[in-house]
Write a structure and sequence with these properties.
The protein has one domain. The chain is built from five helices and no strands. α2 crosses α4 and α3 runs antiparallel to α4. Helix content is 79%, strand content 0%. The longest helix is centred in the middle third of the chain and has 22 residues. It is mainly α. It comes from Sporosarcina psychrophila (Bacillus psychrophilus). This is Glycopeptide antibiotics resistance protein. InterPro entries: Teicoplanin_resist-assoc, VanZ-like.
Length: 87
């Protein structure tokens, strides 16, 4: 039971910072649709790299869990509190 919980929360939390850092460093990703497409491409590249290098596996679960984590991070990025901190 311990391994599925670690997998679930690990994949979910792993890309939460990406939702903050990507729009901070790449200003074009400040819109939800552009950010989502960028994350889908990035996650697909990561999963393919794991498959090609045999350092992991192409796992759809990782893809599904990482995307909401990144979107929550993006939501945090868009809050007025974070935007005030940056100004």
């Amino acid at each position: 039971m311990d391994i599925p919980i670690k997998n679930l929360f690990g994949n979910f939390i792993l890309f939460l910072p990406m939702g903050i850092y990507l729009p901070f460093f790449i200003k074009k990703t400040n819109k939800v649709m552009v950010f989502s497409i960028s994350m889908i491409v990035l996650l697909f590249i990561i999963e393919v790299m794991q498959l090609v290098t045999r350092k992991g596996s192409f796992d759809v679960d990782d893809f599904i869990l990482n995307m909401p984590g990144a979107l929550i991070g993006f939501g945090i990025w868009r809050t007025k509190f974070v935007q005030k901190l940056l100004k």
